[in-house]
């Protein structure tokens, strides 16, 4: 069997190398093929019909490309020493690295065969954070309006801005309508409602009512009132009892009794009395009725006044209003219409993040006219058009015109402005970006570099550290979904500490990004950010107050993300640490190495109580767990990495013992690199800088594009890695590299657009 595999591999795999890199054929023949035949040929050769992965049957670059997932997995498993299986002959470390490097080189050559891949356009709905930030930038309101929206799902590289997972369920559309009204009620100042109804206005109508409308016992007179803003309203009634010195009159709102007035004739018996009460009315139409109870004397109603009760607007409210209403309405309907058109067009253009089209303005002005024609105030009529803008797909989604044909096209300047702002600010483009887009200057490399620096220096860039880093590392869940066992840690942990855990990550990474520091500081740094509460938790003296500040570390165990309590809590169970979770987190989150999914029916570890009863450490219990052959292969890779962090307990406190025994923090990382404790573990990770920055580049590129990455994106990732290495891992280099990259600035037609049209059958 092996001889046949060897014979075939000589012909078939050599043709692969020639198709990808002709100059490497001799190297393949001498150094690669013999190792593949020796260690892989029996299981993964053409003679084994049971295998799903045949590494020896690829005969061209195209076929290698079609099987690149399996080849990529093979490279990873060779590096991690999970293949060949433990009971088979093993290649030396040099042979492992040689094969892995060769595979990776061939796959990179395939990915870059046609240059950088642009990718097709993905329609992206604003996620919850983007919605709130866009509302902030558009109308000046800083509030969590999206808190009632359904939670956004994550996709692609693990982020909640992936267009493929941002659906629009019916419930969300209802929430958009509610939020739009709430936003506009808060942002637009309308004159207080003041409405007066006289006897002739009350229903049912009486032609001979005169100045007084007489309401009989058991009957009522009513009006229909349009309330524009939810709030408190004073209802004032001018009336007089007709057949007695005293009477009663009930006020009904939408058929429900809200108040009963006691009426008493004036001393001279000639003047009607005035009574009033305050009621809460929601926005919309309401029936306001005056009802005379049965067996009560008739009441003559002279007048009904409804006045909105609200304080004078603050300077902040006036500023927000003036930001939207940039033109005064004028005194005639024609002047008001002209002013409304200017106001609505400006608002729609900012909300759509592009120039608004004539047909769009016409439709919005139809809504304005409909409201104005029925007598609504100017501000209310404009608000109706504004509301249509806030529920428009052009506001709720980030649209980019698909490319046409087989080539690539540049994004428009407005599309590029939105990509920039939602990448770094998770919000809409500001005035400077829009002016550059108007001038067609965002295609210029130097202009883009300058904008990246400006935007990163803006306070709004803080959301990038919160959103991207928090989701990449997983720490955004700490203190919320991820908390320790309340009973076990109630004396040392509370909500404020959980917030401090999360804040340390944000403050550290925001500083690193804003000051253009080395991304390697994420692995090891000589500083961190703490407040008094977190410093006390870490046993750092001399920190006072709730304000977070940069502090120099004297303990090198804390430097970098592996020293953050947020990471320790995230990678633990609620009552105990987990070398498995921590080892997997290092491999997947930091190094981008996939960890296999555990097989079904694996028995769980004993509880903390059971391990304490048997006086076993977690390392001892995991050793017994690895005796299960089903578990051994993965745990031999994962557990030794996690052991290096076991001195940190569930909530990140340093400890020297576990269950009364000294903690053994020794471990190994492929290829059989030994370490003891977090400091040495970080040094070993630093020997794999390229893996770390490649994974970080991949994650950030996926976040920036808002789509799942594909194999063709690998060429862009490798370009970013090279740029980072040349710049000593500058944070700004990575961000600028992404912004200047082909997939960020250009677009391709979707695959189906370039597919040949199906043949039409002749009618029979």
List the keywords:
764 residues, alpha+beta, Jelly Rolls, 5-stranded antiparallel beta sheet, 4-stranded antiparallel beta sheet, 30 helices, elongated, disordered N terminus, disordered C terminus
Task: Write a compact overview of the structure shown.
This protein has 764 residues and is of the alpha+beta class. It is 46% helix and 13% strand. The protein has 30 helices and 19 strands.
Characterization of the model:
The strands form seven sheets. Strands 2, 3, 5, 8 and 10 form a five-stranded antiparallel β-sheet that branches. The chain has a four-stranded antiparallel β-sheet with strand order 4-9-6-7, with no helix packed on it. The radius of gyration is 35 Å and the shape is elongated. A hairpin with a 2-residue loop joins strand 6 (246-253) and strand 7 (256-264). It is built from 30 helices and 19 strands. The model is unreliable at 1-23 and 753-764 (pLDDT under 50). Among the domains are: 2-111, no CATH class; 194-309, Galactose-binding domain-like (Jelly Rolls), CATH 2.60.120; 325-398, no CATH class. The protein has 764 residues and is an alpha+beta fold. Helix 4 packs antiparallel against helix 5 and helix 26 crosses helix 28.
